[in-house]
Design a protein that fits this description.
By secondary structure, this protein is mainly alpha-helical. It has two domains: about 220 residues, no CATH class; about 80 residues. It is built from 14 helices and no strands. The longest helix has about 30 residues. The model has no long low-confidence stretch (mean pLDDT about 90).
């Protein structure tokens, strides 16, 4: 099936060339970071996790959201998802690849990443997080590729694939739950020390992930003859709606508990993010923008008239995805470190080096996604 990636118009090759150019820029920036050290980033003794880990956390959610098309199609025989299930699985593959790269660049000495497996520590949540992420990547590649190969030849997938499909569903919940445990298990970080962290992670994943898949389906439909189907896109929109409402509800519950109880170890982090603290408030406009985007998206998605309008739905999905990214990809990590346990307020902003490296990693993900989608769409067009 790899031969399908060698067929494309000039825009396809221009897109690949552009991605390779950005990847080269990201790699060059990383070599500067590797040579000089993490001093070229905005990280410090007080804020030891920044933009890299924030992106990892967000992308784990995008990867986990593939279960929202896998479950209905394979377990409930929802035929409308027949064309897009493989797209969800391949989106998960690209997302986990980016997760691994963000972890790689965040470690000052990349070789130390091997210590997770060379010297496994079952009592460490990091060990389990690495285990479930790599396992999920393996499952999606194995299942997606074999199902697609069988579909191309007009035969049923091998019998051993079905148990792996069933296994991948709870595994998807596990990758984001374990990632949440990585944060809420830290007793010294009041912002993350909440039992609702895992449900919030899953709710945000099941809203932003389907929204992103809708956008991908819209792009695929526009640039190729393959149509994922209106019913499938509308079903994804409903899933995104429920996920977004759950996410906003969980956030509202946490805000009530924090401000009604007045627990200072938890309250100060929300004050920093949404109101500013001691003259520091670099993230305040970002967080209110995220809140506005998510609330407006929820209102438009609840209304069937606006949800069923393709143009409005596209804009809403962009707003939803952007709002969730700001909330999770900017505020969650930084908000947990500021202020410090010693009540010191130190602003963190990513440096240009961090941003260039991050753009490079996102371009790697886009390259993987483009190649996999090229294969999947080619096979689907042959089949349908």
């Amino acid at each position: 099936m790899l031969e399908l990636t060698l067929k494309g118009n000039r825009y396809y090759w221009m897109w690949l060339a552009f991605l390779m150019l950005v990847i080269a820029a990201g790699f060059t920036a990383y070599m500067v970071q590797f040579k000089v050290g993490l001093a070229v980033t905005g990280l410090s003794r007080d804020v030891s996790w920044g933009f890299y880990i924030a992106q990892l956390t967000f992308l784990v959610g995008v990867a986990a959201s593939a279960v929202m098309v896998v479950l209905p199609y394979y377990l409930h025989n929802y035929k409308a998802f027949g064309k897009i299930t493989i797209l969800g699985e391949f989106t998960a593959v690209a997302s986990v690849c980016m997760c691994g790269l963000f972890l790689f660049v965040d470690i000052g000495q990349p070789a130390r990443a091997l210590n997770i497996f060379l010297y496994p520590a079952p009592k460490s949540v990091v060990f389990w997080d690495a285990l479930v992420l790599n396992g999920y990547l393996f499952l999606n590649i194995l299942v997606g590729w074999n199902v697609l190969e069988a579909e191309r030849h007009g035969v049923n997938p091998p019998a051993w694939v079905k148990p792996l499909i069933y296994l991948s569903s709870p595994w998807a919940f596990a990758i984001h739950t374990v990632t949440a445990f990585l944060y809420c298990g830290m007793a010294g970080r009041g912002f993350w020390l909440t039992a609702i962290m895992a449900p919030r992670f899953l709710a945000s994943a099941f809203s932003s992930g389907p929204a992103f898949l809708i956008l991908l389906c819209q792009v695929v439909r526009k640039i190729s003859a393959f149509d994922p189907g209106r019913e499938a896109i509308q079903a994804l929109a409903k899933i995104a709606t429920y996920g977004l409402l759950a996410n906003l509800f969980f956030l509202g519950c946490e805000v009530f508990v924090v401000f009604y109880s007045g627990i200072p170890e938890h309250k100060v982090h929300f004050q920093y993010l949404y109101l500013g603290l001691e003259g520091h408030g670099v993230l305040v406009p970002w967080m209110w923008t995220a809140m506005l985007l998510m609330v407006v998206s929820a209102i438009l998605l609840i209304n069937p008239i606006t949800r069923q309008n393709d143009h409005i739905l596209t804009i809403v999905c962009i707003a939803l995805f952007s709002g969730t990214w700001i909330d999770k990809g900017l505020g969650l990590i930084t908000g947990g470190f500021i202020p410090t346990p010693l009540h010191k307020v130190v602003d963190y902003t990513p440096t240009l080096i961090e941003l260039i490296i991050s753009f490079g990693i996102y371009s790697v993900g886009a390259l993987v996604l483009t190649i996999l989608f090229k294969i999947a769409v080619g096979v689907k067009r042959e089949a349908f």
